[in-house]
Amino acid sequence: MKKILALFSTLVLAVTLFACQQVTTTVPLTTAVPTTSAPTTTAAPLKYSEGVKFEGVKLLGDYKFSLTIDPEELPYFYETAYAAVGPMPMHVLAPSFAVIESDDDGATLVGGFGKIDDIIALDGYRYYPTVTAGPYKFVSFVNQVVTLEIDPLFKGDFEGNKPVIEKVIQRRVNQTLDVEQVISGEIDLVTGVIEGEEIQSAKNAATASADFYTRNGYGLLAMTCDFGPTEDVKVRQAIAYITDRQHVADVVLGGYGSVVYSEYGLAQWMYQEASEDKEWEDSINEYAFSIDAANELLDQTEWKYESDGTTAWDSSKATATNEYYRYNADKEVLTIKHFGTENNNVTTSLRDKFVLNMPLCGMKYEITIGTFDTLLNHYYFGFQLGADRTYCLFNLATNFGTNYDPYYSWHSDWLNTWYNGQGMSNEDLDELMVSMRQLDPEQRDEYLVLWKQYQILWNELIPNVPLYSNQYFDVFDKNLKTKAVGYTGIGTTSFFDWTAAITTMTYEVDTPNDVLIHGVPEMNGEFMSGFGNSAYDNNVRSLIYGYGTYAVNRGGEIVLNETVVKDLDVVKNEDGSKTYTFTIYDDLYWSDGVGITAADFVFAILFSGSQEWLRAGATSTAGEGLVGYMKYHAGEPKE
User: How far is CA 345 from CA 197, 369, 374, 495, 545, in A?
Assistant: First the structure.
C-alpha cells in the first residue's frame, strides 16, 4: 500500500495551511417536521449568508484584514489554525459587481455567489482551476493525467524558494509497477513507498535513488462503530486479536517499520516522549494474536449461538473450512464484510490470514476488492447508504496533520458526517478530546498527559486495528536532488511532503524535457477545496496554491508565512477573544497577472463558509472558531 490518506485525519483544520483553512462536512437541507394536523412536509425557508455580517472577519484596506478568534474557542492548543487562511481569486469566482462590505460589525459578501453553478459544472473551476497562486499553475486533467506548469509570477514559498522544474505531471500508474517505472525512467517520482522488496529494488538500481523519513501516521484496518457486527466493541476487540499484524508488517514493510498499538505515528513528538514511560506502554493492550482471546470476547456478545439461535457455540467444533459459524438469537450469522483495494499487498496479506482465522472464531468472512475511490465512498459516506450499506472493515492508512486534533475524527459532534465516518460515539473519549484541545499552546506537558489517557481509551475502544507505522520512502530519478541545506534525497520529511519540497528540487544533470512525473494510484479530479478528500487530489491543490498566512516547515512547526505576511499584530481583547491583524505584501499575483489583495483572503472565508456554497454541495468550515461563525455559516432567510 502506498501513501493513502491525508485525511487530514487530524489536522483537519491546518490541512491546508498552504491554501484556505477548509474542511468538509455534510449537512442536509433542513425540513420542517410534520404534525398530526399538518401531514404534509414543507421545506424550511432557504437561508443565505449574503447580507449576514461575519463579525470576526474584517477587511481593513487593500492589503490589511483581521480575524478575531471567538473567546469560547480559547484556549486552543492549536490556536494559529484559526488564523490560517489562504486567498481565493475573487475576480474569477465572483461576478464583477460583487463587493465585500466591511465595518465594525464585520464583513459580508454582496453579489458574490452568482457564479456557483458555473464553478461546480463539469467544465468549471472545481475541476479546472485555471487561475491560482502557487508554485505551479493548472494546465489540464485528461485520462488520469494532471499537467501543471511553473507559475512565473509565484513569489516563493514561506522561505522565499521558487521552483525551477518547468513542468509537473501527476498521472495514474499501477501500484504494483510504480517503482519499476521509476527505475526504467517512465516516471520520475513515487512517494510513500513502504514495501521492503520495492525499496530494495530501488536501492539496487543504477537509475534510481531511495530516501526515507519516519511516517507521521499509521496503516490500519478500520471498523465501523455504528453498523454491522463491529458496532459491538467486543467484536472489534476480537478482530484485533485475530489480525496477524506481524504478518502484515513482514509482508508489506520488509523490515522498514514496526507494529503499533494505538492511534499514533512514530514521528509524533507525543509518542516519542510517551514511549519512555513504561507505565503508559504497559497500559496499552497490544492485542497479541490469540484465537482463544477472540472467542472469549465473542462469547460475551449476541453472536454466541449455533445456527438454531439457542445452542451455545462451541469453539472446539470450528475449523478453517467447515463453515461452523456463530449466530445470534435471531439466527443471523456473524458475517464480517471487508472492502480492500486492488493491487495492494496489505489487502492480500490481511485476506490470506482472515480466511483461515475468522472461521476459527465463528466469523463468516467476505471480502470485496475494488478501487480506492470506491473504498473511500463506502468508508466516508456509509452513513448515507441506508439499506445499501455493506462493509464493516476497510484497510487503508492515515497520515496525521501537524496539528493532532482527533476531535475532528472521533468526536460524536461529527456523527453522520464524513469526519466521523466510522460512527464512533463515546462520552469519555469526547471529554478527553475536548480537554486536549482546550489547552494553551504553551501547555505542552499537560497536553502529553491527556494524550496518553486518550491513547489508552482509544486502544480499548479500538475503532481501528493499528497495523504498522513505518518508514516512508521516496523513490526517484537518480538525478533529482534537493537544494535544501542539511537534507537528503528530495528534501521531504515526516511533515513536509514532495509538494512542499518542490520549490527546492532540481535535476543535478540537465534533462531534455524539464519535467517531473509523479505516479499515483488514481485521482478523483477534485482540485478545489470543499470537494472530496483524496490525498492525490490534495497534491495538486498544494502545488497550485501557496500563499497561506501560515506554513509548516520541515520540522513540523507551524510558522508565519513571511513571504505573504508583511506584518502581524495579535491582540487579546477584554472579552477574551484574540484578534490577528494581517498586513500582506503588495507584490503577490494570481497566475493571470491580477494582484492579490486582502479582499481575496476575506473572500475565501466569506465564500467558502457560506450557506450558498454549502447548498451547492461543497463543504467547508472556513472561518470556524472566529467570532460570529455560527451566525454567518447558518445564514438567514431572505425577506
Answer: 12, 12, 18, 26, 34
Q: DSSP secondary-structure letter at 71?
A: G
Concatenating the DSSP letter of every residue in 597-630 gives -HHHHHHHHHHHTSHHHHHTT----TTTTBTTHH
pLDDT 10s digits, 222-272: 999 999 999 999 999 999 999 999 999 999 888 888 889 999 988 888 998
Q: Which domains does the chain show, CATH number per domain?
A: 14-124+558-637 (no CATH), 136-213+472-520 (3.40.190.10), 217-287+333-470 (3.10.105.10)
Task: Return all residues near 578 (Cβ < 8 A) that are at least 6 apart.
Answer: 68, 69, 74, 79, 570, 571, 572
Cell numbers given for 585: 505584501
Residues 466-480 as b/e (b if ≥16 CB within 10 A, e otherwise) read bbbbbbbbbbbbbeb
How far are the Cα atoms of 241, 245, 558 from residue 298, in angstroms, in the given order? 11, 20, 45
pLDDT of 511 reads 67
Cα–Cα distance measured from residue 394 to residue 231, given in angstroms and rounded to the nearest whole number: 14
Task: For 104-216, list the strands marked E by DSSP.
Answer: 106-110, 136-142, 145-150, 167-172, 189-193, 208-214
Residue with cell 522544474: 165
Q: Mapping DSSP to helix (H, G, I), strand (E, B) and coil, where does residue 552 land?
A: strand
Residue with cell 466510522: 422
Global confidence as pTM: 0.77
Residue 319: phi and psi, rounded to 5, are: -130, 175
Shortest CA distance to 359 belongs to which of 329, 406, 320? Answer: 320
Q: In 3D, which of 353, 321, 380 has the Cα closest to residue 534?
A: 380
User: In the chain, what are the helix, strand and coil shares in percent, each to the nearest 5?
Assistant: 30, 25, 45
CA-only gyration radius of the chain, Å: 25
292-317 residue pLDDT tens: 999 999 999 999 999 999 999 999 99
User: 9 pLDDT band (50/70/90 cuts)?
Assistant: very low
Q: How many CA atoms lie within 13 A of 337 on its CB side?
A: 14
Q: CA of 312: how far to CAs of 242, 301, 326, 331, in Å?
A: 21, 12, 9, 12
Q: Before 75, cis peptide (omega within 30)?
A: yes
Backbone φ and ψ for 141, nearest 5 degrees, come out as -140, 105
Q: Is 350 exposed, middle or buried (0-12, 13-18, 19+ CB in 10 A)?
A: buried
Q: CB burial class (10 A; 0-12, 13-18, 19+) of residue 227?
A: middle
Query: Is 60 exceeded by the pLDDT of residue 5?
Result: no
Helix (H, G, I), strand (E, B), or coil: what is residue 79?
helix
Q: Is 430 helix (H, G, I), strand (E, B) or coil?
A: helix
Helix (H, G, I), strand (E, B) or coil at 496: strand
**Residue pointed to by grid coordinates 471498523:** 223
Q: Report DSSP state, residue 32.
A: P
pLDDT in tens, 121-139: 999 999 999 999 999 999 9
Mean pLDDT of the chain: 91
